[in-house]
Amino acid sequence: MIPLKVSFDNGETFLDRFEISPAIFVQKMAANRTLPKTSTPDPQTFIEYFQTGLEKKGQVLFISLSSGLSGTFQTAQLANNMLGNNKVRIFDTLTGSLGAGIMAIKAAQMAAAGLALDLIVEKLNAIRAQSETLFTLDTLDNVVKGGRLSRIEGFAGTLLNIKPILRNDNIITGVPAVIEKVRSRRKAMERLVSLMGERAGATINQRLIGVSHVNCKEEAQQLCQQIIQRYNPLIPIIIAPMSATIGTYAGEGGMMVNL
């Protein structure tokens, strides 16, 4: 893992997950008046990690957060160009949180099975084209603060208890967009489960599913139970807290499903 930095308006800066846990991040985010800022590792940091990987294994595959959400992919590419080693590959997942994590798991499984690096990247491209990223927000506060939604729209959404459903474009831009708006948290969760089947089709029970959340583990577990009851997945579902980069905009109660 190569950590991003997260900075708060009181001047504190931490390496995400290395120096600050998701739980402490949520506490600090609530205590600050403005949204935290996240920043990518600098090119030299990437170069050092890549060199370590090359020394240990001879080849490196970096699974990156979406280029549509962060400059991480572009910085990693710059570092690789500076390094000038053709044994390093940079892969843009066009998603985030467990969406990227699932691709890292699958890449590691393929590497363990002895697949060549180029073939792993080729298969990851096919996996990315079929993957889905769906999520809902419990509060609009963070997207309003971050300038992604006007204050009038945000106020109306809060007043009417509107819960947006978003889908990430995992093929072209890697940027999420609102696809539906429902009233109540319960209906948002139910719709997430329905959309999974609509998007994935008959193969959904064969997929590795990830559920990530911002400080709402109990609800995430309830969502997993709904998924199990409806689709009976053959592979255990992964549940994990979102870290700062995605959690900043998702806000407390944000929930994401990757498959």
The span between the termini is 21 Å
Strand content: 15-25%
CATH architecture identity of the largest domain: 2-Layer Sandwich
Number of helices: 10
Secondary-structure element series = EEHEHEHEHHEHHEEHEHEHE
Strand-helix topology:
Elements: E1 5-7, E2 13-15, H1 22-31, E3 37-39, H2 43-57, E4 60-64, H3 72-83, E5 88-92, H4 98-112, H5 117-130, E6 133-136, H6 141-145, H7 151-159, E7 162-168, E8 176-183, H8 185-200, E9 210-213, H9 217-231, E10 238-241, H10 244-250, E11 255-258
Parallel strand pairs: 4-5, 9-10
Antiparallel strand pairs: 1-2, 1-3, 6-7, 6-11, 7-8, 9-11
Helix pairs in contact: 2-3, 4-5, 8-9
Q: What does it look like?
A:
This protein has 259 residues and is α+β, with helices and mostly antiparallel strands. The protein folds into 2 domains: 43-130, Dihydroxyacetone kinase, domain 1 (Rossmann fold); 133-258, Hypothetical Protein Tm841, Chain: A,domain 3. The chain has 10 helices and 11 strands. The strands form 3 sheets. It has a 6-stranded mixed sheet, sandwiched between helices. Strands 2-1-3 form a 3-stranded antiparallel sheet, with helices on one face. A hairpin with a 5-residue loop joins strand 1 (5-7) and strand 2. Helix 2 (43-57) crosses helix 3, helix 4 runs antiparallel to helix 5 and helix 8 packs across helix 9 (217-231). The longest helix is centred in the last third of the chain and has 16 residues, at 185-200. The two termini are 21 Å apart. The mean pLDDT is 90.
